[in-house]
Protein: NAD(P)/FAD-dependent oxidoreductase
Organism: Kibdelosporangium philippinense
Amino acid sequence: MYDAIVVGARCAGASTALLLARAGHRVLVLDRGRPGTDKLSTLYIHQPGVARLAKWDVLDAIKKSGCQPLDRPTYQVADIHLTGPAPEADGNRAAYGPRRFVLDPILADAAAESGADVRFGATALGLLTEGERVTGLRYRDSDGVVRSENTPLVIGADGMRSSIAKLVGAQEYAVHQKLTCAYYSYWSGVPAGFEQYQRPGHWVGVIPTNDDRILVAAYFLQREFDRIKGAAQEHYLDNIRQTTPTLFERLQAGEQVERMYGTGDQLNFLRTAAGPGWALVGDSGHHKDSLTARGITDAFLQAELLAECVGPKEGGPSTDDALKRYLTTRDSILLSNYKSTLSVARLEVTEERLRMLRVIQESPELTERYFAAAAGIIAPEDFYTEELLPLAS
Ligand SMILES: Cc1cc2nc3c(=O)[nH]c(=O)nc-3n(C[C@H](O)[C@H](O)[C@H](O)COP(=O)(O)OP(=O)(O)OC[C@H]3O[C@@H](n4cnc5c(N)ncnc54)[C@H](O)[C@@H]3O)c2cc1C
């Protein structure tokens, strides 16, 4: 019998499986997709996420894939231009933006090498239950055969529309209306770093990735989605041109090498993290606007927390105790950055914010702390303190 069955083999599921397998547990991982496929994402992994990849011995594989270290962020809005060395998390100063068909298979392979039984083309269909308790999973394997497995722990790592969350009836809370919509594409022949640009209601981000390509993303307010989606390419270029004419000029010297990708469907919620015999990690348990690029890093933090709660196979706590701890502690690692995402994704540029950014711009120390707060290295409330806020008034 498996000690845990994980549904979903991308950044949340594969990393949870990797950690549980390394702690001695027998783990089955199922994903209905094929290995090595792409998915909607602007790819950016903040330093705390990179620190987890280093700790799990998979960072070297990501570096070898050819995506460059992003160690000098820039952010421009109005007359303000913040730049400086990237902040450090556990000795890691660089962020990375690996393609998802690079990152996710590296994690799934590392889970398999750690002893997890990773199977693609396998779809979770339903739960086995005894009363309120989840006791196993019914799934269709890659040959179309429907199978059942008993297990004391089913982990939903199956994304924002999680069927495991639905099946267990996980409650949604801290729900917020959708805030932005995003379009992006890939360019080659354009020298760039990790760059962010803002004007009221608009945001542009640049993330260098594999194969000497850069991802250029344009964000709009959610209420613009219906207007934009019919002519996404045109609105995308127009957003870049108006938000950052210098980047637009740089792009003219390069080439757009892939189609447009985009979505107006970015929900904001938390779901109950765990119950008897089940837990949720990654987007299945918490989804938010992608503007602050926190989904992958948050998936790693949740995977790490759940694995810590479950503990080692020999001498660890009971599954019930582990899940109670995960249930009661998970939000403490997510809430403050969730609040800050909801605030940033409003895409407001207030005079008060500009005054504060002008103060920050004058100080390399404050600039580094600004980027550390954006990366989730320090809590936003520890940066926007009572000392800083009056300086802007
Ligand atoms: C436009 C956009 C840009 C983004 N940019 C960033 C960014 O720059 N940085 C960042 O950190 N995050 C970003 N994110 C968020 C990030 O992509 C997600 O947070 C992350 O992919 C969540 O990983 P996950 O493993 O929880 O879920 P997913 O990546 O959604 O994986 C879920 C897996 O579950 C599988 N699955 C689903 N149902 C079943 C089933 N019934 N049976 C078997 N398998 C199943 C699916 O096949 C899938 O492989 C972005 C998101 C969007 C939409």
